[in-house]
Amino acid sequence: MTVIEGIILATALPLLWLLARAPTAWDRLVAYNSAANRVTAALAISSVVLNREVLLDVAILYAALSFIGVVALARFMERGGGFR
Q1: b/e map of 54-72 (b: 16 or more CB within 10 Å)?
Q2: What is each CA distance from 10 to 3, 23, 34, 49, 80, in whole angstroms?
Q3: pLDDT band at 5 (very low <50, low <70, confident <90, very high)
Q4: Which of these, 5, 16, 51, 68, has the minimum number of CB atoms within 10 Å of its CB?
Q5: Residue-wise DSSP of 17-77
């Protein structure tokens, strides 16, 4: 793992804490989205550094599924579902 990948993943640690302790469901959703973006970036950097194209495919798939999940949860919470 390169230094840049480590830094990106280290910045996800406060987001994981926020994911567990955020005051509202909207804050948790934003924390999840931010953490997912960092994981996607780390996968993309790993793909380039290790010269493995399959990791880039995994990063694209992970980003797409994360986006769909965030949109679905946001629509659910907008309609009155969710916690708090």
Answers
A1: ebeebbeeebeebeeeeee
A2: 10, 22, 13, 18, 34
A3: confident
A4: 51
A5: HHHHH-SSHHHHHHHHHHHHHHHHHHHHHHHHHHT-HHHHHHHHHHHHHHHHHHHHHHHHH
* pLDDT tier, 37 (very low <50, low <70, confident <90, very high otherwise): very high
Q: What is the dihedral of CA 8, 10, 14, 18, to 10 degrees?
A: 60
* Residue 84 reports pLDDT greater than 80: no
Instruction: Round to whole Å and give the CA distance between 2 and 75.
Output: 37
Q: Which tokens hold the place of 82?
A: 């969710």
**Token code pair at residue 45:** 């950097």
Q: What φ, ψ does residue 13 adopt, rounded to 5°?
A: -60, -45
